[in-house]
Fold these 2 entries.
Entry 1:
Amino acid sequence: MNILITGGAGFIGSHVVRRMVKNYPDYSIYNLDALTYAGNLENLNDIEEFSNYTFLKGDITDATFINSIFKKYAFDGVIHLAAESHVDRSITNPLEFVMTNVIGTVNLLNAAKGLWKDNFENKLFYHVSTDEVYGSLGESGLFTETTAYDPNSPYSASKASSDHFVRAYGETYGMPYVISNCSNNYGPNHFPEKLIPLFINNIIQKKSLPVYGDGNYTRDWLFVKDHAAAIDLVFHKGKNHETYNIGGFNEWKNIDLVKLLCKIMDTKLNRSSGESEKLITYVKDRPGHDLRYAIDASKINKELGWAPSVTFEQGLEKTIDWFLENEEWLANVTSGDYKEYYAKMYQ
Ligand code: NAD
Ligand code: DAU
């Protein structure tokens, strides 16, 4: 099988690529990535020499290029993760999100349809999406696979749109597809613009910890390797034209999570108890900020037997250790453009 994984140099994509390359030596894995600010081949140093792995640099918004690689490599399956993924950036620049997340996805669908024509046997387009398409929950309830789409940010609207296109290609052209909608990931290689890695980096640097609004927003956190395991399972065992919700059964209010992070970091860095908490600074809220996300992952649990393998405490500890052991990685990704982004975003 020739498998195309898009966005494989990013946070989640790199864990998916590594898992597929190592677990399936008979597959040829092609990682297509434009290497935007979020893409980093350093994430895949350990597997770049594997004979079943090929990196392709390219942009999914370039239809001619996308068609040419489908023709050249005759992919049997696609695992599509490439996206603009940060909500705050989508508020500043929505069009970039439309281009990559919507147009890019449609380009991939067209290329797959063109290659596979009407013979879809043993072919699969797997679209990796987010729980943010469902909008915001109140104090109770969970997102299920049948929750109505109600996106609130340009990011989630672009992801919702791409989900609709994938479904539409399934209904209209018979394209075989699966979609998964996952909650917030955390773990090694997470780009330090997102809450957990940003705050780990700021604690190391003794910089302020900018908590949006009152900090009472809730997210459902999942260790990235557990998401990669779920993606592997859905790719191989998921039912055609089905959606699977993936989550951590692990809700945290931002402020409680930040305080836990501060406590663990104080111990790891041999700082006095309560030192990092003093860095917490309440700042202006994110516009359109979704109050709460929480996933009902019972379908993937019952039908495919998936469940998270680590607790939040274990996952957070592994994550913090990884960042402390990889300060060079952190220094590399926070040099250059990152400084400009940080200054504009948090001035
Ligand atoms: P990320 O921003 O870390 O990585 C995205 C990758 O896509 C980068 O390597 C980037 O270079 C690449 N890319 C961006 N634009 C591209 C383009 N035009 N052409 C080719 N490559 C391009 O994102 P992530 O957090 O790893 O998320 C991966 C996917 O999972 C996304 O589709 C996201 O919506 C989804 N998702 C993320 C989370 C999360 O918590 N991070 C949760 C659920 C779903
Ligand atoms: O739910 C899945 C989604 O999770 C993914 O689809 C997105 O790609 C991913 O970025 C993530 O979106 P969030 O907006 O939930 O993640 P983020 O880390 O940006 O923010 C988490 C919470 O922390 C959110 O309530 C906003 C808050 N926050 C974030 C930052 C960056 C702060 O309070 N301060 C910050 O500086």
Entry 2:
Amino acid sequence: MDEADVRDRLREVEDPDLGDDIVSLGLVNDVTVEGETASISLALGAPYAPNETQIADQVREVLAEAGLEADLSARVEDDVPPDEQILPGVKNVIAVASGKGGVGKSTLAVNIAAGLSQLGARVGLFDADVYGPNVPRMVDADEHPHATEEEKLIPPEKYGLKLMSMAFLVGEDDPVIWRGPMVHKVLTQLWEDVEWGQLDYMVVDLPPGTGDTQLTLLQSVPVTGAVIVTTPQDVALDDARKGLRMFGKHDTPVLGIAENMSTFRCPDCGSEHDIFGRGGGAAFAEENDMPFLGAIPIDPSVRTGGDEGKPIVLDEDSETGDAFRVLTENVANNVGVLNRREQE
Ligand code: ADP
């Protein structure tokens, strides 16, 4: 078996999202064969995304059938040289956005981050919601960042997440009245002064709305893709539409639409009530040719989990936890899709 034979064999591996084999899609970079071992570098960019794990497993299987052991590495090409990157150690930046407040944007950001960490990824959670920074409470962060001698900030960790929030610097209950340019300055500084280390994913909780703050933020960091959070009713969807337009204007890819508070499972009677309607998010996603990432029910334990600092995605026995796990996997899979599409 030489390198060409190995490449040939790898044509048997289909990409579950892009509908072609991994060789034709340009996802197989270097191949070297030494004795019984084939070292292969794959253009995979979303660590622990189930569909990328599946690709890697199939590569191992195909090689095993040919009597070879696989030594796999994964890397996507980046056009920007490392010393010019703002966050060189961060593979993917996921922005969580909503057209307006109160739809559960922070809740989803926290649960997606904790869900990715649960999958095994190295994750940072950046609370950029300067007007209502509540992420530290939602994960019950008991530590604050500390500064190194080089004046870098070391982010505290909780549930394996590296955390940064304006709340650490100004206090959660202090009303912060910022003007746009100040927000821009403070946020950019926070990005650059934090020792994030090596991360597979950085989840950013954006401030609600589609104003200047969001725009400057999108300009200052390389966002891989955005998750747009909405509730099912028409007024919320109108706001989500504005969000879509904002990302479109900035050429920021959208990972998809997530619907929160999509139905209410009544703990007393056991039946479901569609308080804000249902299915609006999925229909909206379809209308705009976007992936639908998942629907999260109204569940009082989401709020208590948030208040007590324990994201419900970490509760293995909860059905709503299952909904968040599905959402997390879809987010990771779609990060993978965006990265792999760029290799073509
Ligand atoms: P946003 O970031 O959009 O302003 P939050 O995530 O802060 O919204 O959520 C607003 C409130 O709604 C919080 O108290 C949160 O715990 C609660 N909440 C969010 N999603 C759900 C849900 N699916 N079920 C029950 N309560 C929820």
